[in-house]
Amino acid sequence: MTAKETRDLSVTELDTKIREAREQLIQLRLRKQTGQVEKTHTLRAIRKDVARMETIRAEKSRAAAKAA
Length: 68
What we know:
Elements: H1 3-7, H2 11-33, H3 41-67
Helix pairs in contact: 2-3
């Protein structure tokens, strides 16, 4: 998911996407430990996606607090 697509989401949608990505990350970590993951670079990509989504969520929260 690109930053542009992420910015179009609402805060609640971001929360659900973050939760889903973290669950996926946990599953990939478990599969990596058992040697079932062929594309280990996906772990890094998902971690970066989570960080990107959390940053955008924080920006939106600050903007909403500033407006209120």
